[in-house]
Amino acid sequence: MDIKRLPKTEFAAAVAQIAGERNINPQEIIDAIEEGLISAYKRDQKEHGIIVPEEAIFEVDLAPESGSFAIFEIEGDKKNNVTPPGFGRIAAMTAKQVIDQKIHEVERDTIIDEYRQKTGTLVLGVILRIDPYRMTVGIGKTEGICPKEEQIKNESLEIGSKKLFLIKEIREDEATGKKDVILSRRDPQFIVQLFMREVPEVGNRAVVVEKIAREAGQRTKIAVSSSQNGIDPVGSCIGQKGSRIQSILSELPSDEKVDVVAFAKNQSQFIVNALSPVSNVKVISLKNNLAQVEVPEDQLALAIGAGGENVRLAGILTDADIKVSAVKKN
Q1: Tens-place pLDDT, residues 41-50
Q2: Which of 67, 277, 309, 310 is the most exposed place for a label (fewest CB within 10 A)?
Q3: Which tens digits make up the pLDDT trace of 130-155?
Q4: All domains of the chain, ordered by start, with CATH?
C-alpha cells in the first residue's frame, strides 16, 4: 500500500498549534485536511488529463498521530488505493488554500457562536463600510451587519465612528450557509439594553421594564415598575438632575425623546401615565380598549404630539386606542 507519510513531530505540532491559536477542535482540522487532500487529488488528476466522474466517492485514511494518509476510491464494497506516486508534495501545495479556507470558516463559526450567546445585548462597534443596503461594523474579532431596516432613519453615522449596537440575531444564508451577526439600533430592545447599562436598578432587576413603544429617531415611551419597596422606578431611571437619562439620550439621535412613565395594572391609570408629559389627563370612558380622554385645551397639541406620535405610542404602550379631546378652561 502506497502510504504517504509526514514526519510525526511536524504534523502533530502543526495541528496542535493551529488548534491552540484558533481555539478549534483538532478533529475539525483533520476533517479540513482530508477534504483538502481530496480536492488536491481531483485537481492533480485533471492536470494529468484524467477526468474524475462527479459521482465518484473518495475517502481519506489519515492517521492523526503520524500524518500518514492514503486516498481511496470507494466502488461498492471495494476500497481502491488511488494515491498517486509523489503526491505528498503536490498535496501540501494544492490543499493549503482549501485547508486555510476551511480553518477560517471554522474559526468564524466559533466566533459567531460566541456572539449567538450574546444575542439581545449591546456591543460597541466601529463602522467600517456604509452602502445603501447595509452597514458593516467591526465588533471585536469579526464583523457584524446592520441592515437598512435596522438603522435609525435619518441618523447620520460616519465611517470610523464608534457606536453601540444591539446584537439582534445570527442570520444564516440558506443558499451558502454563511452566518452573519445582525446588529440593530432601531429595535426597541436597544433602548431597554441602554437602560440596563446606565441604570443599576434596572440591571439588577430592582426596577423592571414592563413595556416599551418606540418610533426610532423620534420618540420612545418606556414603562417601568419597582420590584422592591422604597424604590422610585421613574426617578431611578431619570437619575439625579437627569444624569442617567442624559447618558441614554447621548447614545441616540439628538431628535429622539424618551419618556419614562410608571407602569400601572389599572389600564385607565396607565393611560394617564403614558400620555406624559401631559398633566391633568382624564379618562372619560374605557371600553373594549377604546379610551376617550380629555386634556386641557392648552395641552392638546402636546398630548397628540408631532404627527400624532405621542398619543400613538401611548396607545401601543397601553394596548388601547386613545382618542383625545380638549376641555376649555372656564
Answers
A1: 888 888 889 8
A2: 277
A3: 999 999 999 988 999 999 999 999 89
A4: 8-114 (3.30.1480.10), 123-184 (2.40.50.140), 187-263 (3.30.300.20), 279-330 (3.30.300.20)
